[in-house]
Design a protein that fits this description.
Layout lengths: L1 E3 L2 E2 L3 E2 L10 E3 L4 E3 L4 E4 L8 E5 L2 E4 L1 E4 L2 E6 L2 E4 L7 E3 L2 E6 L2 E4 L5 E5 L2 E4 L2 E3 L2 E5 L5 E4 L5
Parallel strand pairs: 1-4, 2-5, 3-6, 4-7, 5-8, 6-9, 7-10, 8-11, 9-12, 10-13, 11-14, 12-15, 13-16, 14-17, 15-18, 16-19
Length: 145
Amino acid sequence: MGTISNTITHGITLGTSGTYASPLTITATGAVTAGTTIAVIGTYPSAAPWTVANYGAVQGYGGIDIGKGTVTNAGTIVGAGGNAFGIDADPLGTVFNTGSLSLITGSGYGILGGRQITNAGTISGSQYVGVSAGSGTVNNTGRRP
């Protein structure tokens, strides 16, 4: 289990052990600021279902990118690239957002997923929620500014 409670100034790759092990929790005092790379990535395809819980701040070209597993966001995620995304859980992921997802530039998605997307938070940017492969369920009680 990994925990980030300080500021990391580079993108990170999830692992099954080590500092950035899944399940990974970014606490309210934690931040991952990656500049022009994806902030948090779980390699796909992988046998591992990645788990990330963000209560802090994540910012990069893309926010959090997993292939399968679960992303819970109660913090802030900013995608700031040409095809930015807040959370990409394509195609087998599950996303729960009660926080804030923001796309600074580009034409990406706030949440792009495949299995189940629940949004009760705020998403701002060009596109909001999308199911990318096969069938999926979107539960949206959130809003866009």
